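Bug report (template v2)

What were you trying to do?
Predict the complex of my protein with pyridoxal-5'-phosphate.

What happened?
Run completed; filing so the output is reviewed.

Input:
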Amino acid sequence: MAEIGGMNIRALAAKYGTPLYVYDEGRICDILNSYREHFQSDTFETGVLYASKAFSCKAIVKLIAEYGMYLDVVSGGEIYTAKQAGYDMSKIFFHGNNKTPEEITYALKEHVGTFVVDNLQEAELLKELSENADYTVHALLRVNPGVEAHTHNYIVTAHVDSKFGISFLNEEEIVKTIEVLKTCPHIAFDGFHAHIGSQIFDRNAFGEEIRKLFEYAKHMKDTYGTDIKTINIGGGFAARYTAADAPIPTDEVCRFILDTCREENEKNGLNVHRILIEPGRSIVAEAGYTIYTAGGIKTTPNRHYVFVDGGMSDNIRPALYQAEYDAVVDGKENEPANTEYTVAGKCCESGDILIQKISLPDMQRGDLIVLKTTGAYGYSMASHYNKLPLPAVVFVKDGTDRLVIRRETFEHMTALEV
Ligand SMILES: Cc1ncc(COP(=O)(O)O)c(C=O)c1O
């Protein structure tokens, strides 16, 4: 692959330096289009929220706005970024298991549309802080339906120990929390939110989640007269990191979710009228690439290492949870990949390995290695470990490039030091 989005990789590296995050903007737009087109229903009002934790910056928020999508944020910083991008605050959903009083106050001042309330204490705090609100604050309650999904497996357990949301098994707290929200003059309680995991390949995990949410909504209606109008299924839609990954196509997963919701709505005699999803990874992961420059090559009795000029500071995922990536070497696409390399970063941690094993052509100092599918939870989880400056981020589209985040300098890194 000599190009990303019609831009020559070597030219990008020469212009902006490495490590460099590059996003194929056209690819993001195609995915946004696909969600917009397929998450539509005759039965329900529908909405797609971009989970901005996957990659938050003004440029991506502006794209999300262009495509008419909602925004999921989890901190004051993500609200501020949305504000700086000129995003409509009423379309923001504010998540998080420990929103601070300062964050809640800030969100209310900015007229954030919906709070996804995590627990009883937070509902009480929101009630107190929204006393003088000059608008109607919408609220969803994050519940834990006891379905946990990760990659190829999902389990249905009485998983009561999650730090997020209130378990269906803790009905007393659910009822009390809804009661608090319903008795606030400025709060409109809309319904439930759940999020069951990440990188989900099995549609039945979503099916199980939906069944449990609707059955519980019926139980709430029959027992307490509570009307659940909105159900937010959460995110977790998979991306293709390596050839072994086969995510469910967007059109199929959207259809499956909406069909299952319609069936469950009818079966349970409910009148849920809005269904939301909140993908993060599946919108930005595959559009993102990281370009590194190879430095030293080291051979030990059991390994060939190729060292790169970044690592866990710009992409913590392999070190954090053994995430796997595929990579190519620019300009060597036609050379035989006959050596197995370990791609290691430059940070002072022996766990700083970006790829444990990958067959690549013979590597030389100065080669450009391009990691694929780095667009989600890469830059957004980056750190200053070893005082490495954060890389620049560039969007490319139709043969043009635009810088969306500048590379940090040494001066940035000490700017706050007193
Ligand atoms: C509440 C919530 N919604 C949505 C997402 C986005 O998940 P994904 O990026 O896997 O689609 C997350 C991710 O952690 C989440 O916690």
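What did the reviewer find?
The first strand starts at residue 3 and ends at 4. The longest helix spans residues 203-224.
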